[in-house]
Amino acid sequence: MHLTAPAARIGRGSCYAGALAAVLALSACGGGGGEGGSQDGGSADAASTPSVKAVPELAEMVPQDIRDQGSLKVGTDSTYAPAEYLSEDGESVVGFDVELFNAVAAKLDLETKWQSSSFGTIVEGVDTGKYDVGVSSFTINEERMQQAHMVSYYTVGTQWFTAEGNPADVDPENACGKNVAVQANTVQVEDIEARSQECVDNGDPEINISKFKGQDQATESIISGRNDAGLADMPVAVYAVEQTEGQLETLGKQYEAAPYGAVVSKDSTELAEAISAGYQSIMDDGTYTEILAKWDLDGQGTLDTSEVDPSAEG
């Protein structure tokens, strides 16, 4: 769970109006418990999502129980703009991740029922059957593939960001002694903990790491001055910078790019293969690029092929 884009090309609801509120989306726009059942999500961006028709051959790949149900229950952490976040109604989930998967579901002749959840509980929710799928900017890695199937669809790296002007003089390559914010249960946690340990091994002060339940909270802590910098997926970091209108800036470039994957239960191999075929179909017919272009995310990170359980190296 990163591309520089003009703010005008990034979807924005009233929950993101204004500098601080742009990133926080706390309270009415915070993640937790709400459900959005419509495919268009009710936002201007989602409303312009390309029309997608079902493909009978792909629909036949879907397990019969899911076909009978007619929809997919999708677990997501709706605090991770611009990938997945709550629209201005405070309930519907929108974002580029959402639009891509809605298009995949449409190819399979299924509707989507998006359910907001804490990021760290989604994989377990898929395993227990609470969700049919998890779509929440999950970076594919070996640990996650031991727990579930992962279906690749985009590639993203980690991006550092800080307050405008970098007042704490943070250097991502030497952040010893700095206060750094990350969202819990993301790949950025392992990254920053390894950097902190390297500081200690070299006789320098450890990095003071603050882990937050939601990315919105981690970002707010940098704006408020509680933390000096943060790490997040590149689209998320860049979106936060743009939406705060000059209060934040990125540090350096993204690194260690790896594929995102939709999460499907190990017991649902057929469904994973159907979803992969759905992603492949939107890649092949141009829908994939059309959606990503709306978010200025078509310049890097795109994939030509969707795979079930690909190499974690991307």
From TrEMBL:
It is found in: Cell envelope. Residues 71-299 form the Solute-binding protein family 3/N-terminal domain. Signal peptide: none annotated. Its main location: other. Keywords: Signal. The keyword Signal applies. InterPro entries: SBP_3_CS, Solute-binding_3/MltF_N. The keyword NADP does not apply. Belongs to the bacterial solute-binding protein 3 family. This is ABC transporter substrate-binding protein. The lineage of its organism: Bacteria, Bacillati, Actinomycetota, Actinomycetes, Streptosporangiales.
